[in-house]
Design goal:
Largest sheet of chain A: 8 strands, mixed
Mean pLDDT of chain A: 82
Shape of chain A: elongated
Structural class of chain A: alpha+beta
Strand order of the largest sheet of chain B: 1-3-2
Largest sheet of chain B: 3 strands, antiparallel
Low-confidence stretches of chain A: 485-492
Number of helices of chain B: 4
Helix content of chain B: 55-70%
Number of strands of chain A: 23
Strand content of chain A: 5-15%
Oligomer: heterodimer
Chain lengths: 893, 114
């Protein structure tokens, strides 16, 4: 137990130091007085007595030191004292301190921000208990050699769920937008259909109420719904009696049976409510691969093994649920096979590249920052060389010298780390607010304990390394050298300046790498902006409408609604064109496609490709500003009578005919006994799949088929209005018109086409902006670095310059001399930087568009910018050199 | 057991101080006088060692200190043995017997050998 006592004594010693010192002083005084008294009693005079007593006691200070040592806190006290001194020294050199802390703070802050994002998005496991065993089950086939992902058929769902041994549980789900109506304004919300098994797969259950039961999923069940936590708060005010209340979803009353926990997040979009997904084995089919499914791997089974087992089970669905269109062998011919992919890969894949690039970039910035700080420390160490030599001469041990440097640099490192963490919090906040929609798991991005620990580690490591740096240098030179007159010009200074120059060269080189990457991204962005989308994007106002099943049960009802709405919208003031499209506006294309069964323009037996389709209302082509190349556009009669006319894009025409015009009159069918469709027009290409992709070979369909029936069921429709006016004004007008037709229909996803285009480039612009910021920071820090180096050079050579000027050298020559020295560093840095950039930027290839990783124009421009900025930084100290007063210089020491 | 010379002396001093305190609590000067007397003037405790020793004993919890009034009405710091200190003293006394017996054996052997 004595060590506990010792600990409390030590604490007391630390805290009550003054009191203890006074006590000790008193004690010693008492002792000496008693001794004095005794001596007086033995017959001496007072002075003799006192002198004898003091001599008998011995060295007071040494005794005091021994007592202090026995308090057991000397190490801590020394460190505290050293820290106090270090703080005082730093306060006396505000520029040095500020520059170091700022530089380290920027470097550490940038690195911590990006590392938090990388860690939360790429490295951390998904926030589900079973995360490593969660897999997404689907299928994959090949189209023109490229793999296409699709989901399950209802038949394969049942087969895999019931007959597979490598999947211990399976569930299906899909997200959908739903209409929420009732007493408040109709709202369009994001909801999800889920089988009850999903809850156990995700190991989650409602905090209130229950999950779906078998009855809920059966036919004719009472409609029920489970709501999300945030929705419960906003819509029901957190009402504890919410269970049993009714919600009008898609015009049908649903009973609320449960509330999900607050932290439950399943997909990227914030799902508001969940409805049961009823799958009936009796009506399972082996066509239509559109059911998303997720499963839990059985313990010890890998995804690959599961996929292999499912592949063997694949034909079963065709045996148990045969369809009249295809067989298993035919489907296999297109390369169709089941896929089992870990959930994390699906959620996160594709973003990895960008994030690792950004992490590398900030790593570079940190390296540059550290080089800068190292340089500053070297300079400072030399300036303090005399003080250190004196300490050494006075007997300071190696340990004490080490403490001197290390405490100071550790302090700076920690301060830089603190600033870095503060900047990181701000940075992460900005990143989250501006994250492109493609960035998954944004809600999970946070600076957690792991990141903070890593930051602390880096700060301390940086502090220790910087402290060791000058220590090694100082240890090299002997005390006598340093104390001698003009000791700063010790012989080893050439070696030191080489280190400093190398650091400056490294900084400039690294800055160039970042600038090159940033320049390439800038050009990519510029190129993307310059791509002609094929339609006129300005003054185009868009929104979506979704018709609920209950009110619009068949194609007639839906088709009539859309045709009527387009009429009325065209009549709005200021609107010069209005149209609807079913398969998605450009850049938001839903990827619908079909392939002709037979045509009259391809050789018999030829492989027929699938083509993206666009189902439109009258006026779409004119409203979007897509030019007509040949023939005619779709007219009213095509919609009202169902003439079977289609229009194709120019690239479609070019694939099958030498001249675009020759496409007119081409005919094809979609099903073996179906109607024949005829190409009546060719229009210009549009970049429907995005600016980076080649324009799709598209077929434009009128909503009504050749036989007069509605071939497509346009439940959800995008609308585009060409109009001048404010978004609010147009939105109000649109809502009014829609309300006249159906007051329960929400108008949602209101945005201008410009906004859609910008959003499609969000990922590119995000990367570009971040890299540009990084490059700017790198350039700034590198410039500060070379400025520091050249300033020091000038101060070192002041005497020499004074001599030269006294001997008749003119100011401009001095200027040129210094500039030349700086130029050597700059050019070397630039050359090395270009070499490094060539090696590194090839990693950016996937992100670039219209520009090669090794692009001479970009590199030249960036190198020039670097040279100009760095030369300017050299010019200032050079000018100072030229202004040196020879007399002062020669007096200078 | 391997102890350095300074440690040996230090431990011995500790033991002497503890033993002396069994006679009652005392202040620093009084302790030094008492040890001198009790040892028959053989030990003249160096003050440079006494006060650090007292601090050490305090830290280890074998001794406590308190301000008190001395015989001649001055305030002084009095040191007192704790219960842990009594136990430690017993331990050290045993150890001292053992080591001095060992030393004795070596010396007798040496004498016998010579």
């Amino acid at each position: 137990m004595s060590w506990i006592h010792g600990l409390s004594e030590r604490l007391r010693a630390l805290v009550r130091r003054d009191q203890l010192e006074r006590q000790l002083e008193e004690e010693i005084r008492f002792h000496i007085e008693m001794e004095t008294e005794r001596n007086v009693g033995a017959g001496m005079t007072v002075e003799e007595a006192r002198r004898k007593a003091e001599r008998a006691f011995g060295r007071v200070e040494a005794t005091k030191e021994s007592v202090r040592f026995e308090r057991g806190v000397s190490l801590i006290e020394n460190l505290m004292r050293e820290t106090r001194f270090a703080l005082r020294r730093l306060r006396r050199r505000p520029t040095f301190t500020a520059v170091v802390v700022l530089t380290l703070g920027l470097g550490i802050g940038a690195t911590t921000s990006i590392f938090s994002v990388v860690k939360s998005v790429l490295l951390d496991p998904l926030p589900f208990p079973n995360a490593e065993r969660l897999v997404v089950v689907g299928h994959q086939y090949l189209q023109e050699g490229e793999p296409r992902q699709v989901w399950l058929t209802t038949g394969s769902y049942f087969i895999y769920r019931d007959e597979s041994r490598s999947l211990s549980a399976m569930g299906a789900f899909y997200g959908a937008s739903m209409n929420l109506s009732g007493d408040e304004r109709p709202e369009r919300i994001r909801g999800s259909y889920m089988t009850a098994s999903m809850f156990s797969i995700l190991r989650t259950s409602p905090v209130m109420g229950r999950i779906f039961s078998e009855e809920d999923e059966g036919p004719g069940a009472e409609p029920v719904v489970i709501i999300g936590h945030a929705f419960w708060q906003s819509r029901f005010g957190g009402d504890a009696n919410v269970l049993g209340k009714m919600l009008r979803v898609d015009n049908v009353e649903h009973e609320v049976i449960g509330v999900m926990p607050e932290d439950f997040r399943f997909s990227r979009w914030s799902t508001v409510l969940w409805r049961p997904l009823s799958l009936d084995r009796a009506s399972a089919r082996s066509i239509n691969y559109s059911l998303p499914a997720m499963a839990l791997l059985a313990p010890g089974v890998t995804a690959e093994e599961a996929a292999a087992e499912l592949d063997a089970l694949f034909p079963r669905q065709y045996e148990l649920f045969p369809n009249e269109f295809t067989t298993a062998e035919e489907t296999r011919k297109s390369g169709m096979r089941p896929t089992v992919r870990p959930l994390k890969e699906v959620a996160v894949g594709g973003v990895g590249d960008v994030l690792w690039v950004l992490l590398a970039a900030v790593g570079v910035i940190l390296a540059i920052a550290c080089a800068n700080v190292a340089n500053l420390f070297l300079v400072q160490a030399e300036e303090q060389g005399r003080e250190l030599a004196m300490r050494r001469a006075l007997g300071a041990s190696g340990g004490q010298l080490a403490r001197y440097f290390l405490v100071q640099s550790l302090l700076l490192g920690l301060l830089g780390g603190l600033l870095g963490v503060a900047l990181a919090y701000a940075g992460v906040g900005v990143l989250i607010a501006n994250a492109p929609p493609q960035l998954p798991r944004v809600s999970e991005i946070a600076i957690d304990g792991g990141v903070l620990a890593a930051t602390a580690f880096v700060s301390i490591l940086a502090g220790l390394i910087f402290g060791a740096f000058p220590l090694l240098r100082v240890r090299g030179s002997s005390a006598a050298d340093a104390l001698a007159e003009g000791g700063r010009r010790a012989t080893s200074s050439r070696g030191r300046s080489r280190v400093r120059n190398s650091l400056a060269v490294a900084q400039l080189g690294l800055a160039l790498v970042l600038m090159a990457g940033s320049g390439l991204m800038l050009r990519t962005f510029w190129n993307l902006r310059g791509v002609d989308p094929g339609f006129v994007a300005e003054d185009l106002f868009t929104f979506q409408i979704a018709l609920p099943n209950a009110d619009y049960p068949d194609a007639d009802a839906m088709g009539d609604f859309h045709m009527e709405l387009v009429e009325r919208l065209s009549a709005l003031p200021g609107v010069t064109g209005a149209a609807g499209v079913w398969t998605g506006l450009p850049f938001e294309d839903r990827g619908a496609a079909n392939s002709p069964e037979s045509t009259d323009y391809t050789p018999p037996g030829a492989e027929l490709l699938s083509h993206p389709m666009k189902v439109v209302t009258p006026g779409y082509l004119r409203t979007m500003g897509i030019p007509l190349v040949a023939g005619r556009t779709l007219e009213r009669r095509d919609f009202e009578q169902g003439t079977g006319a289609v229009v194709v894009s120019a690239s479609f025409a070019r694939r099958y005919w030498p001249e675009e015009r020759e496409a007119l009159g081409g005919r094809f069918t979609l099903t073996p006994e179906g109607e024949w469709y005829m190409i009546v027009g060719v229009v210009g290409d549009t970049r429907d799949a995005g600016l980076r992709q080649p324009p799709p070979e598209m077929i434009y369909w009128a909503m009504r088929g050749a036989g007069g029936e509605w071939y497509f069921w346009p439940r959800t429709m995008d609308y585009a209005l060409r109009a001048r006016g404010s978004t609010e004004g147009l939105a109000a007008g649109v809502r009014r018109v829609v309300g006249e037709l159906d007051p329960n229909l929400p108008v949602y996803a209101v945005q201008t086409m410009d906004e859609i285009v910008t959003a499609s480039m969000a990922s590119t612009s995000f990367t570009m902006v971040l890299l540009a910021i990084g490059a700017a920071m790198a350039l700034l820090i590198g410039t500060v670095g070379i400025y520091g180096v050249m300033s020091y050079v000038v101060s070192q050579r002041t005497r020499e310059i004074g001599v030269r000027m006294a001997l008749g050298a003119a100011a401009p020559n001095i200027l040129k001399m210094i500039l030349r020295q700086g130029l050597v560093v700059i050019v070397t840095g630039a050359i090395l930087g270009v070499a490094a950039a060539v090696a590194v930027t090839r990693l950016l290839r996937a992100l670039l568009f219209g520009v090669e990783p090794v692009d001479p124009l970009t590199y030249a421009g960036v190198a020039l910018l670097l040279a100009v900025v760095a030369l300017t930084a050299t010019y200032l100290p050079a000018r100072r050199a030229a202004r040196v007063d020879p007399i002062e210089a020669l007096r200078y020491e | 057991m391997s102890i350095s010379k300074s440690e040996l002396l230090r431990d011995t001093l500790d033991m002497l101080v503890l033993k002396t305190l069994t006679l009652g609590s005392q202040h620093g000067w009084g302790l030094s006088q008492r040890i001198q007397q009790l040892s028959g003037d053989v030990f003249d405790v160096n003050q440079g060692s006494l006060y650090p020793a007292l601090q050490r004993l305090k830290r280890k919890g074998w001794v406590t200190s308190k301000w008190g009034t001395s015989e001649n009405n001055r305030s002084a710091v009095y040191y007192k043995l704790t219960r842990a200190g009594v136990k430690q003293l017993a331990r050290e006394e045993v150890q001292w017997q053992e080591s001095s017996a060992a030393v004795e054996r070596v010396l007798r052997l040496a004498l016998a050998g010579s």
